[in-house]
Amino acid sequence: MKLLAAILAVLFALPLPAGATAPPGLPADLTSTEVSFRGEGGLELHGSVISPANARAGRPGVVLVHGAGTGTPREKLLAEAVGAARQGLSVLIYDKRSQGYSTTERSYPQLAEDALGAVATLRRQPGVDPAKVGIWGLSEGGWVAPLAATRPSSGIAFVIVVGANALSPLRQQAWAVAAGLRKAGAGGSLVGRAEPNLYRVIADGGLFPEPYHDPEPVLARVRQPVLAIWGVHDLLTPPRETPPLFADALEAGGNRRYTFRFFPQADHAAHLTPDGGVTRLPELAPGYAELVGTWVGEATSGRAPVAQVSGPAPVQAVDSFGVPPTAWWESAAMQVVALVLLLVAFGGYPVVALVRRVRRRDAGVPSVAARVISAGGLVAILGGFAYLFYVIMTGGKLAAPGPMLGDRPVLWLALQAVAVATVAATAVTVATWRRAGTRGERVRLGLLIAGGAVFVPWALYWGLLLP
Fold first, then answer.
1. Residues contacting 265, CB < 8 A, separation 6+
2. What is residue 357's predicted lDDT score, i.e. its pLDDT?
């Protein structure tokens, strides 16, 4: 059975019959061979090997690893594949897995095993020198590619990363969204408190995959030559902070065969951008593909440059910030408990009044302060979370906080005003609680007061009571 499994694994890694459909838009001076291979867990993945039409024997090859995204098709990296193939390389691009990978679930070791399956496939292609096959990773692939390169017997000859990050994924994402908000003119507690806290709670709840992956120990184990490329206008990776950390990690492992290059007028993916990184054009930055071709030739012939850094200084307006794990009192579980208590406290008051009216019992005349606590608390809680999730979903370089008043989004200011009114109404209700007409009314008001008491630290934590 083991022999049969091995034979099947080899068969599934072989190219499909010639004449299979090539990726759309492939230039006439290039050829494509469709391949299928096994990724981690035996998942079948499909890709294309793109080569020059007059490819020479013994040529280098490179596997391209996608950035973040579920089931990203190979065509997303066609521009990079075409650019590298025109430099004399054979390039394997493949459809990213969707099984086991989603917005809330992913494993970098799993993605690294997928990439290694692609590397093994490319090394078997006719005309490709198996000793000259490397790996290239974009963005999230910048965490995956070095991990694959450190696997024993990976066969990887070199590593190229673009828009890569030496920070943890959670810290990178929190920085990107905060930087996007600041770029849109937002500041204050929304950016400094609410946004990072939301990411910390999401990570604690298991909804942010691989949040604390540490790339530096992985980079310290990379022994292959490394080419790292950043666009000067990278809005998703801190482009000023990351390169020194990359260099320190590589040198800590004794690897000085690295080349860092910064491209002007280029974005996160080293594509041209006309507006400082917000819009990505289809064209690669001038000289990017040529750099890859020249550097791969040097790296695969044992002449990789040593500690070479060049290009204009990257633009990074603000530093990244720590996003540590939550303490027990701010954990996702405690946030859920607090949310349930607040909803019961604030929602229970009108519900009880409605039930009493339906049963034709005297519901009493609710005070203005009680109404403000109930309605204001519900609006602040539900509206606050709705707005925060909207912000992070439109975060990063395309942050859209809505209309602004100074450096504060109008919607956030409105939520803060509601929160202040809720606290003030709670104080008024505390002062009048003993004068409530009936015992039942005192119980209902007591529940509202308890909710208001819990609401104060909750609103402070989420920045609704902070400037």
1. 232, 233, 272, 273, 274, 285
2. 63
Share of the chain above pLDDT 70, in %: 90
Residues 85 and 219 placed together within one structural domain of the fold: yes
Please state, in angstroms and rounded to a whole number, the distance separating the CA atoms of residues 134 and 87: 15
Is residue 219 located within the same domain as residue 362?
Answer: no
**DSSP run (H or E) holding 90:** strand 90-94
- The answer on 227 and 293 residing in a single domain is yes
Q: Look at the block and give the residue holding tokens 């996003």.
A: 323
Report residue 347: phi and psi, to 5°.
Answer: -85, -20
Sequence-distant (≥ 6) Cβ neighbours of residue 330 within 8 angstroms = 197, 200, 201, 461
Phi-psi region of 229 (alpha: psi -120 to 50; beta: other; left: phi over 0): beta
Mention every residue, 6+ apart, whose C-beta is less than 8 A from residue 293. Answer: 84, 86, 87, 88, 89
Q: SS in 3 state form for 24-54? A: CCCCCCEEEEEEEEECHHHCEEEEEEEEECC
- 353 and 395 part of one domain: yes
Q: Which of 310, 344, 370 is the last residue of a domain?
A: 310
Structural domain includes residue 173? no
CB neighbours of residue 3 within 10 Å: 7
Q: Which residues contact 225 (CB under 8 A, 6 or more apart)?
A: 158, 159, 257, 258, 259, 299, 304
Which residues are CB-neighbours of 51 under 8 A, at least 6 positions away?
30, 31, 32, 33, 59, 85, 89, 90, 91, 125, 127
Q: Among 310, 342, 377, which residue terminates a domain?
A: 310
- Cβ 77 vs Cβ 139: under 8 Å: no
Pairing of strands 308-310, 408-409: unpaired
Is the separation of the CB atoms in 188 and 409 below 8 Å? no
Taking CA 313 as the corner, what is the angle to CA 310 and CA 316, rounded to the nearest 5 degrees? 140
CATH number of the domain that 129 lies in?
3.40.50.1820
Q: State the chain's maximal CA–CA distance in angstroms.
A: 94
Decide if 259 contacts 227 (C-beta within 8 A): yes
Phi, psi of 442 (to 5 degrees): -65, -35
Query: Do 261 and 117 fall into the same domain?
Result: yes
Residue 130, H or E segment: strand 128-138
pLDDT at res. 17: 34
Residues 29, 53 contacting (CB under 8 angstroms) = yes
- Interval 413-455: pLDDT, tens: 999 999 999 999 999 988 877 666 666 677 778 888 999 999 9
Name the pTM for this structure.
Answer: 0.89
